[in-house]
Write a structure and sequence with these properties.
The protein has 156 residues and is of the alpha+beta class. The chain has one domain (23-154): Nuclear Transport Factor 2, Chain: A (Roll), CATH 3.10.450.50. The protein contains five helices and four strands, in the order αααααββββ. It has helices at 2-15, 25-44, 47-54, 65-70, 72-84, and strands at residues 86-101, 104-117, 123-136, 139-149. Strands 1-2-3-4 form a four-stranded antiparallel β-sheet. Strand 1 and strand 2 (104-117) form a beta hairpin. The longest helix has 20 residues, at 25-44. The protein is globular and about 45 Å long.
């Protein structure tokens, strides 16, 4: 009995991996590059890059996936209008982590979002976020995004 228990414990310890294995380092690096490009595009107000990467995603609230898929210009106009309401908009990435399983990529992180509306007071928020990407060919496309404010105690 103890030999069986020892074998089971050894098997479980050897087979347990606290992080998802990534067998394709190239895919992982390209996912990181895509997310860095997306964040840089937001900071630079580069609407074309934002639409290219985010155009298929859900989770932003004001534009449905169907509208994005069938009327990409609708999403582009929405992004332009939203950025047009900001005198200042900036994202600072505080921490991030990436996983790739098959053709699915997951990004999780914490960021600081600073914005000053044209008519309004400056706002700085710390947000926890996640983004899910799909790899098609050699390009990553965001398919889902979610962000949540951090508790007031942990916000600036």
């Amino acid at each position: 009995m103890s030999r069986y228990l020892l074998l089971m414990c050894t098997f479980l310890l050897c087979s347990f991996q606290p992080q998802l294995p990534t067998t394709d380092d190239e895919a992982l690096e390209s996912l990181k590059a895509t997310e860095a490009r997306r964040l840089a595009a937001l900071n630079a107000r580069d609407v074309d890059t934002i639409v290219e990467i985010e155009g298929r995603s859900v989770g932003f609230g004001w534009a449905s996936t169907a509208a994005r898929k069938h009327e990409p210009a609708y999403f582009e106009v929405g992004i332009e209008r939203w950025l047009g309401t900001m005198e200042h908009f900036e994202i600072e990435l505080l921490d991030d982590d990436y996983r790739v399983v098959g053709n699915t990529g997951l990004v999780i992180g914490t960021l600081v979002r600073r914005e000053t509306p044209i008519e309004g007071r400056p706002l700085t928020r710390r947000l926890r976020y996640s983004a899910t990407y799909v790899l098609e060919g050699n390009r990553w496309y965001m398919v889902q995004y979610h962000r949540s404010p951090m508790p007031v105690e942990s916000t600036f």
